[in-house]
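Example (one chain per record):
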Amino acid sequence: MLAGDAVDIFTPLKSFAGRRKLQIESLESRRLLTTTDGFEFAYNVLPWSSHGDQNWSITPDITHGGRTGAMSGVVDDNQSSILEISQSTDAGTVSFWRKVSSESFDILIFSIDGIEYAEWGGEQDWQQFSYSVDAGVHTFTWEYFKDDSLAQGSDAAWLDDVVFPSQQDLPPWITGDAVWAGSHELYVQGDATIVADPAGDVPIIYAAGPAASLTIDPTTDRRIHVAQMALFSGATATLASMGAARTASDHRVLVVNDESISIDADCKLDLTDNDLIVNYSGAGNASGMEALVRLGFGPNGDWLGNGITSSVAAAPSSNGNYALAIADNKNLTNPFGSDAPGGLNPKFDGENIDQTAVLIKFTNRVDLDLNGLVDANDAAIFNGAFSEGDAGATWMAGDVDLDGVYGSNDAAIFNSFYDESLAQL
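Predicted structure:
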């Protein structure tokens, strides 16, 4: 999609396209939620529909907030473009921002349950409007209607940041500024913390915007299972360190079960001194995951980048001794496995895995086989795979500077940090 393109509001572009912005305030033991759809993405979680002579669309050109907004379709005289949603709400206030550019008799009409509440025509800049609603299911309609002659301005209307009042409990494993929308979807806008393994809920986690900060800090659980994770527009997630209590056999691991982990270039997943398992089906995407680790490693090799990174490895006190090692399990010289009958390999961080998993491990600087040690197997891997100048290099075969090429810098780093006396991580 090119910048400036309008996208049909009902056409999904990718698996993480459905996302919403959410605002929350506390109300005793429940949360009074205002669910805001800012039309940030091409396919919206809320059940919007469009009809009339032309559909509304998503556009990045004119917005109130964020990167995109909704725009009426291009219609001729005596035609209309309608955006509509039927939504269950609590008693409260529905609000939205609207903009109109038209001749005065071509108008945007707002209705609730078929009753017209307001209309606007002419040149009307962004302005917010609010209307009271009772608890129940309501149909909200925005219709851009052209009369039988003339056209002025942009001949369009825009809508953004539509807010509906609703109430919902959070499951016990999450606290803070988040909404559990059902269907296993968790939306994060502010500070939120996962305090236990979601277990059977296996959430799809969406976090959007620089205020969205998810901390994964369970009280007792070490393995945290989610279905998917997506970070957008400056959002961050941190798998909190256990600090001095961390050991090689007792630390945290985030398990993403459906292969789907999406991190924008301005977002960050900080593993601190913990690990990540991304299970997949089919061919997998180890190269994409390694690209996210490479982004975190940064151009200066200091782990201060976005993507997947480690603030512990980045700390000056670490002296460059730590890294995030990454490998497709099936390609390791000694793949990890399970303790099931007949299993030949150890589990990874206490988690049973098979050959279809990408593993990212906080470990010693030149641990190529992800066992937490620097040992003779790492040396054998490096010496067997190193071919200076060859492209397509990977961490598990000796690309320890994560530039995708075997070079003299890899050899210098490996030789400098090779130390079999280092404790297992």
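Caption: The chain has a mean pLDDT of 85.
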